[in-house]
Here is the input.
Amino acid sequence: MERTAIEQLIPHRGQALWLDSVCDISEQHIAGLASAGCTAHYGKFAEPCLLFEAAAQLCAVHGATKQTNGKVQAYVAKVQQLNVHSFAVTPGPLLVRCNLLSSNPAGALYHFTLHSAAQPVLSGHLLVVIHHAAA
Here is the structure.
């Protein structure tokens, strides 16, 4: 799934869309690629911990592909157990992986990892709250 298809599922556009593609998706898992320069507009000293946003967008895509009844909006409610494994992010794509740990109609809990050149950069948990829009 490329950027144009991702834009059909989540509201992010331009520099706000950090995902370049989704390369694997299943009922419990999603993986995609993000640009290593996605934090460039925050300056050259942007912290790698900001990269959780790429994982949050990937989780939103995962949730959107599972929806069958109406429009929903997902919001990151909590980032837990955030681990910065490396402050050195090499040029090139970041591999982002999210695994669904649990879900219910009100939200979902994911474990995420980001890798740069096969080296772990960031990992943690995302708690996503789901808001169901009125029909």
